[in-house]
Batch of 4 targets.
Target 1
Amino acid sequence: MSTLEIKDLHVSVETKEGPKPILRGVDLTINSGETHAIMGPNGSGKSTLAYSIAGHPKYDITSGEVYLDGENVLEMSVDERARAGLFLAMQYPVEVPGVSVANFLRTAKTAIDGQAPALRHWVKEVNGAMDNLRMDKSFAERSVNEGFSGGEKKRHEILQLELLKPKIAILDETDSGLDVDALRVVSEGVNRAKETTGAGFLLITHYTRILRYIKPDFVHVFVNGRVAEEGGPELAERLEAEGYDRFLSAATA
Ligand code: ADP
Ligand code: MG
Ligand code: MG
């Protein structure tokens, strides 16, 4: 059983005009086995939250705390965060020319486990996970993210998720740019990872579409750098019907 605790997190981003406050006191607790959806309008700070937890240098934590099983995440290097069991797709470089998907996955697995996986078993596991995601075997030989389509990037993300078996996974806009078939395959991958790893999930999304395939236990509406409302899956349905207007007018009032 693992817990990610975000406490009163305030974050500023570096801009040319100086630091700009984006997150204004975020409180969130995610336990193993739970799926949380963060939904909110564009520019509300959802990606900032993900980048901050990932340890992106551009995001300055001005106050607040983040703990994974009582360990201070904000004091960890990006690598240490991954080893501690946090999965944040955006912590990986956008393109890694010359490094194949197969080598990348094996290196990541070795770094996280502290030892190389047994080869036979590992090859089986990779092939199985790729089959599940309906990925062609030749994909493993391609350079990481080089010329990947939107759908391939997302599948690669879920492939990592299935193989690296994190404790807590944060997926930012995993649904964006996917057609319905790819959305289904990617969602099935997340649901499989939920079952096989028992991880806790934070799904960040603008649209309610993916929540038809991945059922959240909790929905948090994110507006203007903080959680404006929380509820169960019914809140996502309400957002689908009503949009974010109600929250936006409340935030500026
Ligand atoms: P969301 O993911 O909800 O669309 P973001 O976290 O991407 O929101 O952005 C929140 C706000 O912070 C926006 O106003 C955006 O312009 C600003 N912002 C985020 N990252 C940067 C950055 N690197 N430089 C300047 N402004 C940024
Ligand atoms: Mg955005
Ligand atoms: Mg975003």
Target 2
Amino acid sequence: QTTAAPLIPESPTYDKLRKAAAGCQACPLWRTGTQTVFGEPEGQPRPGPRVMLVGEQPGDQEDRAGRPFVGPSGRLLDEALEAAGIDRAQVYVTNTVKHFKWTGQGSRRIHAKPTTAEIRACLPWLEAELRVFRPDVLVCLGATAAQALLGKDFRVTQSRGQPVASEWARVVVATVHPSSILRAPDPRAREAALEAFIDDLRVVARIIH
Ligand code: URA
Ligand code: SF4
């Protein structure tokens, strides 16, 4: 059973977790990824409700930068957060899986979906981040995060934008992953998908403002 669980420090802090995760080799993805991409920022830059966003796994640019959501998905996320009235600097952003998984296609590295075993192996890091950060509002971006935290039967398409209670936060809101908007077949579909995403984030804005 591969799991990061034995690597979680006792009485974890953000710094301890980040350092320990940097050396994680609990699942095979440490070989495909350049580095562990941990959540950030440390602490809460502002007083007020604590908001945590959870994606799937770092992408190509995140893998190089060592920071979550700095590539195309991240730019779309920033745009949507701003449109919803949420300051990115106000939220903690992390991923369900901390290493980039990809398949080669020429010189391009194409995102590959993490397996259930990889998600399970990495989950102790996310659970520890949740215990340390203690979000008031938790936002699951896409099915990987939603199912890891809310259960295998959770359906984002059915329950997106609907606040639910959970052990992880007072309120959990699930929505689509920003990359699904980037994959929309045409500009019209993209615009509609972006608007629906912003609407889900407005639910979060209403809770925290
Ligand atoms: N997609 C994610 O889920 N997370 C990132 O950090 C970047 C893209
Ligand atoms: Fe460890 Fe997660 Fe990276 Fe796997 S993906 S090696 S569990 S940090």
Target 3
Amino acid sequence: MLHALPAQVARPAYDRTQLQPGIVHIGPGAFHRAHQAAFIDTLLHDDPRWAITAIALRSRDTTDTLRAQDGLFTLKTLGPGSWTRVIGAIRDAFSAQDDPSGALTALGAPATRLITLTITEKGYCLDGNGQLDLSHPDIVHDIARPDAPRSAIGWLVAGLARRKAAGTPPPVVMSCDNLTDNGSRLREAVVRLARQSDTGLAGWIERHTLFPRTMVDSITPASDPAFLDALESELGTRDDAAVCREVFTSWVIENLDCEPVAALGRAGAVLTSDVRGHALAKLRVLNGAHSALAWMGLALGYQRVSEAISDDWLGARIAEMIGQEILPGLAPVQGLDPDAYAQGVLARFANPAISHKLSQIAWDSSQKLPVRLLGTVADNLQAGRPVVHLARAAAAWMRFVVRAAREGSALTDPLQETLLVAGRDCTGDPAGDTARFLEMEQVFPPGLARNPDFRSALSRGYGDILKLERGLRP
Ligand code: NAD
């Protein structure tokens, strides 16, 4: 693959035969390949001990493709200052379903000093309070069969059990997903699951395993056939594992005193004691606005992020939502200028070179709405700040569900069945329809669902979205 590439495509300048495994990554989707793998590729030029073993728990498509390409894939950035580069950081890739003992061996190997995850929000099997959901089918399974896990949390517990049994130190375990306080959530989930079968193991994990918080940021759309075809013309070869992202990339990691975190700092990650502040700003500003844009943009008939943000009315409402309802509730964060950050986010959304589908951002919305927007809503209500734009965005999500139910289309969402039933029952009456959704405790905390100010803002917002669907601007 490498020899035939055009000269302008950068490629690993290190000897891949000398790489040693140091990281196990669970969930090698587009984001991992576009973000973390690029940081590690940089690190490997100086230190060969951090090669990635990529393990998929669900679909084997990506790992099969990566294996067929010896782990190599192309990363193309889009927009001003773009470049194309072959990433060599993934040394091995396989599916845990195909090779469960290989997965356990990799997770339990003393050489594995860092385990990272990008498994999407739902992969953590958390309940509405952010705790491991002991009634989740995968967790029920893993409690009964800790030796043959299904969930990512179960795999982590099984790998850590191996380390404890062998008397080797645990790896650092790092969530790179968009979860509030991702390190603490992951730690609590792993300890809670371990406690169900082995309290000694749970205590050992609590005492010895570090779960640094992280904030990851780089807009990475799914690699669609149009991108892969265009890249094939550019490279003269087909790369089905190729990914694209914007040029901007950021990885902020809690500055815990351990070898993997120091190594990631050398690779370009920002190490800080205030990851929570950075992560909350990103979750509420970038992710919150992204979701709001997706639901409202789809109501207006747009397909892509850059089109939706360029709609004068919608672009102005998203900017107001950030400026009036999100930024005022954020505590100061060292090294972050909130206004400049917000402007930067809006400019990044408008990058026409990134073909990011609104429908993709709308996947798993029932999981995203609570973490991206409802926390801000709750804070604003308590502080007497407005929730007009935030409630309209939540109402746009409800209408997104109602339209799917009417059209008979599927939803990519763990609550699909419940949502479609609710959507089918909706009649177009703002108060009645929003009340149906507010009954879903998995999405709306009961206290918030009962709040009269939120309920009336939601009804008004719902009416606005009905107008948008008819091509009118409220
Ligand atoms: P993707 O669909 O390409 O990959 C998702 C990965 O998660 C796949 O490897 C899949 O097998 C795995 N997965 C899904 N459900 C799982 C489950 N229940 N248990 C275990 N693994 C599971 O998506 P992506 O673009 O790689 O995004 C993944 C995550 O990365 C996001 O959910 C988000 O938390 C984070 N992220 C993405 C972006 C972005 O722009 N794409 C930006 C910042 C952060």
Target 4
Amino acid sequence: VEEHRKLLSEINVDVDRHAKMMNMGLESYKAQFMSQKNRPEAMKYFDWFMSEIQGQRIAEINELRKQKKPSVGAFCIFVPEEIIVGAGGACFGLCGGSPATIADAETELPRNICPLIKSAHGFKLQRTCAYTQSSDFIYGETTCEAKKKTWEILNKHHPVHVMNIPHMKRDKDLKMWKEEIIEFKEHIEEVTGKKLSLEEMLEGTRIINEKRKALLRLDSLRGLNPEVMPITGKDALFVTQMGFLDDPKRYTQKVNELCDELEKRVEDKISVFEKDTPRLMILGTPIAPPNWKLHTAVESSGGAIINEESCIGHRYYKDNVDIDNIKNEDDLMSELMKRYSEVDCACFTPNTPRIDKILKMYKDRQADGVIYYTLSFCHTYNIESFLVTEALEAAGIPCLVIESDYSPEDAGQIKTRVEAFLESI
Ligand code: BJ8
């Protein structure tokens, strides 16, 4: 513990405030997760990871930094993490899910923007996130108005590298996107002072492909068999959230161990939900830790969440990079661009593949309903909900739309609406 405190002050964390924040987070985790019945044994690793989330993992990242490996904090799944991992470095998510930093953020940012951005910005101002403090630079992108303008302010406190992500997917947009990926790679080379080889980047891509495969395996195990649901949605969400912080090789191994156990549970018909529990899909904006409000509301009201169509969810792991026919660096950059352009974020216009995917997911999973979840003031997802719910209605799929921020105040109201929705399906 003393060593951790020493490291935290070396990276300029406000150690006392950080300790208070961590205690609050751990208490909330204990109350919401440890009280669940019949959890898989393999969740013990993830419970341990939670207890070391700003401890051992931070020590590992800073060890890499000492070896001049890159350390990159990101806010979006468009970050080409294959390149960072290929350089032997660490890539981690900084999206904020806590209300505790928002008041500080509002000293620099308007109140009426998305809480995910405000929460993360507040962590930087408070110096209470050891990941932010451990990053050589923060990866930013031009997906939404709130993000791209916040980078200009965040850059006053921490170096930010912005990638220009197009809002359409025409050939000329994709060409520019590929150039941005090349520029990102060059930026990593500048940070490390070392050229990256094709083999290194391919190795990084293999590692991340394996991680995405393991998450897809988890997604199938929890969602595709209506007879047996071997893990709660809340636990599966937490596992997915930790994928944005943990070392990718170790994490992949642990997710696969969890999947082995879940496969056995399916064989033995061990379900954590009663028969006929309504099975819901969540669609929409990312659910960053410690934002577990919706999952807690649904699963304490008699529903089960069987997947998240979100960037902390299916949108993150649904596609892999095809590396079978890569002969040179240019081929790899093209394949990375292809893979990233499959992401169906609401920042794109048009974004119809997202609707087709949702309808297919619903059918494959034989779900009973969906909740379209938008963070307050996220205009792209909020507006796109009209088109998504219209398609759902036409297909006869029950849907509840929830818009919320991180304050605990609407938790009761959300629960009431969820209960009414569950009764109606
Ligand atoms: S690929 S969803 S991670 S941009 S910050 S858009 S919630 S107003 S996070 Fe995102 Fe990349 Fe798209 Fe995924 Fe809305 Fe908030 Fe903006 Fe947000």
